[in-house]
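Sample entry as discussed:
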Amino acid sequence: MAIEIERKFLLANQQWREQVQSQSKYIQGYLSRCPERTVRVRVADDHAWLTIKGENIGAVRPEYEYPIPTADALGMLAQLCEQPVIEKWRHRIMVNRHLWEIDEFLGKNSGLIVAEIELKQEDEIFVRPSWLGAEVTDDKRYFNSCLISNPYCEW
């Protein structure tokens, strides 16, 4: 089974911006959202994916992701996904052997910036950069799928 082990953190300061190695604009929407599963469509640059995720148990959940034609994804985002869709800039930073993905949200979620790291094991040790703030892995408000119905501007 494919699994995702992901931890999320707030940012303590803006120093991460000096370390960004690449960035992409993401647009994503949800075809289905419930505690047991989410079905997401995502476009970044000229690539698109359909992702099915299971329920979180701590930082772990099943995840299946498949590339799909970008034109199909754009059609699904416009016609089938819950609105509004999530838009964000994803910034990437390598720290030692781990990739940090920092999502800077747009629209109604503007002002929210979250750093994510994917791990191979739940107890995997990783370097915590100086710009890393409080962990929010278990706070459902920070799930992208929750930001549609409870956007950051309403917190």
